[in-house]
Amino acid sequence: MSVTQSLPGSARAERDNRAARVSLYAVIFGAFVAGGGCVPAALFFPLTLTWMAVILLSGVTAIVAGHLARFRAKRHGLHGRRLALAGIVGGLAVLIDS
Description:
Organism: Streptomyces koyangensis
Structural class: mainly alpha
Radius of gyration: 16 Å
Helix content: over 70%
Keywords: Membrane, Transmembrane, Transmembrane helix
Low-confidence stretches: none
Protein name: DUF4190 domain-containing protein
């Protein structure tokens, strides 16, 4: 077991809100793809519809995971409400940008 992992019964594992992190990771991925940071411009044009689908899917994932994280944080007293809100807002920004 590495230093950063926690045991399943520990206080850190019980207070973790994984959906909030998923929401933020989806926003980062969607913004990275929408900005064209993963492929050169020559490869971007033939795959326009595929990349648009990836961007839309990451935006929707961020919004759904953000709402789920806020619900879990409120109901179970988990951390990550602000992180989930950042994921929701970022997911909306990714959808608007696409």
